[in-house]
Design a protein that fits this description.
By secondary structure, the chain is α+β, with helices and mostly antiparallel strands. It contains ten helices and eight strands. Strands 1, 2, 3, 4, 5, 6, 7 and 8 form an eight-stranded mixed sheet that branches. The longest helix has 24 residues.
Length: 298
Amino acid sequence: MTNDPYARYIRFHTPDAHIAPREQLPMSAEHLAWAKQYGVVHQFSWLSVLLPPLCFGPMLPGLVFLLGLLLYRGIFDGGLDVDGIIGGSFAWLAVATVVFTAAWALRNYWRDKHDPTTRYWQRMPEAGVVEVERHTLVEGFSVWANSYDPDCNTLTLWADGELKSVQDSGVAQWVLAKTTAGHWLVVKKGFSGGFSYSREGQMPDAHCHLQPRAELSVAFAPGTHISLGQHFSGAPIPMVTTPYWLTADELKHLAEVAHHWLFFPPDRYGVVNTHDAGWVQRLVDKALASVGPQSERG
């Protein structure tokens, strides 16, 4: 698998035949809004088609021709009249430049019009269907992280029937839940508000905390692991909200094993693999050890 970030990003946004068949349901308004949000970056754009050829096309043929002449003179014929050849070649060089630029633009047009990722995100919202994975949760444990990114300082939330961008506080609640299948499942909730660069941020009020229920359904863009929304139902599960704040290394590793972004089959969204379950259990044990002292101080 390539380590190129852009190639991995495109692959993650492209339907994958290795993803197992899943239950299909009609899109809700939230699903449709998220689908359009993700699809914005995969739209056909004349700017991306024409900008490179128009910026560099008029220069490259002449530059390559000049460099070729200079190389030939340096290696084979020191008396070659470069200026004279260029002057006598102006007409056909102009034609070659036009042909080269037009061919480049046509190649970009063909590439973008037939790009499978672009075509998928143009058509998928109109299909009105999402795929769903369901999990039954048994118990959960909350840990906290404070990771403010000044280059990505907004948080997109579904509220009042639409997606809204708000100031990201950097604070996130990570719920580590056990499922009836015996897996660890990781769910994350970010919070809006002021930010700080310290390890420990300002914990949100209790009524704002994520309160998981027994049944969790996660909706996906069909054929991908792009989540278009999550829905809890059923009875509340036993939940321990610890005061534990993750270190930078713990947060990085948890984000990797949680499989929320840029992961590929056979990994599943939110589900921790068996070989990482021991690390998650040790993290939970460490978080639980912080409950007693914090309670005594409270």
